[in-house]
Specification:
Chain lengths: ~260, ~270
């Protein structure tokens, strides 16, 4: 019984996608809306074939991924480091947290104008915004992980003769890893969104630019394709992070908590 | 019991000390900034000094930028867009989530679609929205709605799915009708999750609208800072960003307060599904 239910569920989850695509195609086949504005899946594929080449698309994807990867690494590393420092050296932490907490409520996209004034329209301003998107979630979660660690774990480490930086790196930081991992996923989604926005507003390459440019040319099929591509890449990268980090590297943390 | 000697590192500062350090840091930061700027070590064009920013903020509140659009008008435009999109999203997502969460097969069918739709960066829909509806209020509101919608929907579905079966059985045992079961058992135990979703959704709405307003908009906080950048007015851009920060802070403070007031039993609820 239960197995049947599960199997039906599996079928349903594929059917859902199929139904959506069929409805999408039917709407345009029967001309319910202007096909110029609302192309069906087949029209989208045609438009993409006519306006884009695989190399061009790969170039845009490459630019976007490079930007988001670089910004994520820089901002994320800074977030973890500052978070660890704030959680370990409490007084210095209170000093450092002052500017960080003042700037945190500002969404990353709101930095775009300032980033452009400060760093120009080059790569630097985009990477800066993406880095900010990664910094705050990783800082917040690292800091939270650092201060919520079970004091008995620390005491056990001390009893075994660890102190100072060794205690920090061998016991406390590993203890905060699950929270850091949570922060990582959040940070990635912020970085990714910031990347798309920055490319929409000011770029001459990348996926965001590709769809904004397609709007100027009026090729809606390319816009739709770009949106789906951005969604697919975001989904895949998020899945990779979740799979690699959360379930493989941190398996010890989840044993016993989930099935 | 603390071990004597070297303290366990869970030792934290008391609130009073923490706040004192923060106030001193803040004053020191601002003073250093002002001083370096007056000594000519920081370019006024890139980073105007604090005293100048205070004047700019005052001018934004009275004269406005562009002329006659005061910061209050910008805020009003932004708030109004957020409210429309957000409430529309909630009005559709909550009932839809309640239904989907109760029906296993529908939930299975919807799950991959929802997962994918959430992966689509809301801001990437902007070119499509402009192509369909022009650079208009409708485009902006719909994008806010899209961003907010999925967070509320997934949390509502999760909430319904995780209602304690015992509660439902007890309700049945006491002869609750279908609607009674729904309104008196399922809905109340789902509320904390719905609220968690709405909280996340409001943050998303705020981020989306700031990004959306940067393109082809005259009124709104995002438009304010974007226009400041066209004229390379960093003082206005920074002041506008300050308003955005205060606005963002206000949202999270109010939401925390509301949650504590309305759902005291759900404080500390893990935000499982973002």
């Amino acid at each position: 019984m239960k197995k049947d239910r599960f199997r039906l569920g599996l079928i349903a989850s594929w059917l859902g996608f199929l139904v959506i695509i069929v409805i999408w195609q039917l709407i345009s086949t029967f001309g319910l809306v202007n096909p110029e504005l609302f192309p069906g899946p087949i029209a989208v594929a045609r438009s993409v074939a006519a306006n884009l080449t695989a190399v061009r698309v790969l170039q845009h994807v490459g630019f976007s991924l490079m930007r988001v990867g670089l910004g994520f690494l820089l901002g994320g590393t800074a977030g973890v480091v500052v978070g660890v420092i704030c959680g370990w050296y409490v007084k210095l932490g209170a000093v450092l947290r002052t500017p960080v907490e003042l700037l945190r409520p500002i969404p990353p996209l709101a930095w775009i104008p300032l980033a452009i004034i400060w760093l120009g329209l080059d790569e630097a301003s985009k990477v800066f915004i993406i880095a900010l998107g990664a910094f705050f979630p990783l800082f917040t979660n690292t800091y939270k992980g650092m201060i919520t660690i079970d004091p008995n774990v620390i005491r056990a480490g001390q009893m075994l003769g660890l102190r100072g930086v060794r205690l920090l790196l061998r016991v406390v930081v590993p203890g905060a890893l699950p929270d850091i991992a949570t922060g990582m996923r959040l940070a990635w989604s912020y970085s990714f969104g910031s990347m798309v926005a920055a490319e929409l507003i000011a770029a001459s390459s990348g996926l965001g630019y590709m769809i904004m440019h397609a709007r100027e040319l009026g090729t809606i099929g390319v816009i739709v394709f770009g949106i789906l591509l951005i969604g697919a890449i975001n989904f895949l990268t998020d899945y990779l992070i979740q799979d690699v980090i959360l379930t493989r590297q941190l398996r010890w943390h989840y044993i016993g908590t989930t099935g | 019991m603390r071990p004597s000697g070297k303290k366990a590192r869970s030792g934290r500062l008391t609130r009073a000390v923490d706040i004192r350090i923060k106030i001193i840091t803040l004053i020191a930061l601002v003073a250093t900034w002002e001083l370096l700027s007056r000594l000519g070590l920081i370019s006024m064009l890139a980073l105007p000094r604090p005293s100048h920013l205070v004047v700019t903020i005052g001018r934004l509140a009275t004269v406005g930028f562009p002329i006659d659009i005061t910061v209050w008008l910008h805020i009003r435009a932004t708030v109004w867009r957020i409210l429309q999109g957000y409430l529309l999203a909630a009005a559709v997502a909550i009932p839809a989530g309640l239904v989907i969460g109760r029906l296993y097969l529908l939930e299975r069918a919807a799950n991959p679609i929802i997962t994918f739709a959430r992966s689509v960066a809301t801001i990437s829909l902007l070119p499509l929205a402009i192509a369909w509806f022009g650079v208009s209020e409708l485009s902006r509101v719909l994008l806010v709605m899209y961003g907010a919608f999925w967070a509320i929907l997934t949390n509502t579905i999760q909430g319904v799915k995780s209602v304690d079966l015992t509660l439902i059985n007890v309700g049945r045992m006491f002869g609750a009708s279908k609607s009674g079961l729904f309104f008196q058992v399922i809905l109340p135990s789902t509320l904390p999750r719905i609220f968690a979703g709405m909280k996340i959704a409001l943050g998303i709405s705020f981020m989306v609208i700031i990004g959306v307003e940067m393109i082809g908009t005259v009124e709104g906080l995002g438009a304010l800072i974007q226009q400041a950048r066209y004229f390379y007015k960093s003082d206005i851009a920074i002041s506008g960003t300050v308003f955005i920060g205060i606005f963002g802070l206000l949202i999270s403070v109010v939401l925390d307060w509301l949650e504590r007031r309305m759902l005291p039993w759900a404080v500390g609820l893990e935000e499982v599904e973002r």
